[in-house]
Amino acid sequence: MYGETSNYQNGIGNRVTVLEAEDEIISIFCQNNGGMEFAMPIIRKQFNDAGIDFKNPTKDELIVIVDKLVNITKELQGEAAAKEEFRDYMHIINKISD
Amino acid sequence: MKKTVGVKKKICLIGDPAVGKTSLIRKYVTDVFDDKYIGTLGTKVTKKRVLIEEPEVNYDLTLAIWDILGQKEFQRIQNMAYRGAKGVFLVCDLTRKDTLDNLNEWSDAIKQVTSEIPVIILANKCDLDNPAFGEEEIRVISKKLNDAPYIITSAKNGDNVDDAFYKMGEFVVKTFDELE
Hints:
The complex is a heterodimer of chains A (about 100) and B (about 180).
Chain A: H1 18-32, H2 36-50, H3 59-77, H4 79-93
Helix pairs in contact in A: 1-2, 1-3, 1-4, 2-3, 3-4
Chain B: E1 3-14, H1 21-30, E2 43-53, E3 57-68, H2 75-82, E4 87-93, H3 97-101, H4 103-111, E5 119-124, H5 135-144, E6 150-152, H6 161-172
Parallel strand pairs in B: 1-3, 1-4, 4-5, 5-6
Antiparallel strand pairs in B: 2-3
């Protein structure tokens, strides 16, 4: 979808679990999109619509969620913000231990 | 005639998974209890208005009640959710002693994010027949948490649920911001 050079610096260390990555991704989405009260219902809907278990997603399922979240950011904040967010998300996903 | 002041405050319920946080909120807000357990996905905010009567003034308090998932892996989500809270319920399950022991950790986590705020311990599920601990053990934890008050509740039959939220309301209005 977008390039994968991330400027994302703060937060997590070298290798992360899927849940740590999910935690980080959701936090970023909330920060970028109006705060938790506004953003969390949107996130919940993406998980429910995709039939993905919030508490036990696979790495591939997390990529599906990322794609959905980035599309929402694109609608809310435009292409540039979505690109940046996507790079940050992929940077986190690439740190997931296999 | 007493003045009525509009106040809104954020409070949180935190504690291990499946201690009954969501059920307590549902019971308080909608008077409904559902035996089926569905874990909280992230955070959920429910609002409830309550009138707090004080000798000098009445408070028309709107509580924004934050239900926060209990899985320890979601630390960043939890830390974000604590911000701005003016009161916190630390919830444990009377049938699982570890949920009481873990309240120290939950308290430490919230202290890292918020200033000193009122804490009430809720020992939930008193409707069940097999308690794993009693008031003596709760008092030990309460002592460690600066003598935080504790209330024994049942989200299932509603025991002390309204009282617990009212008590929290009384605590939080003491530092109120008037509504515009």
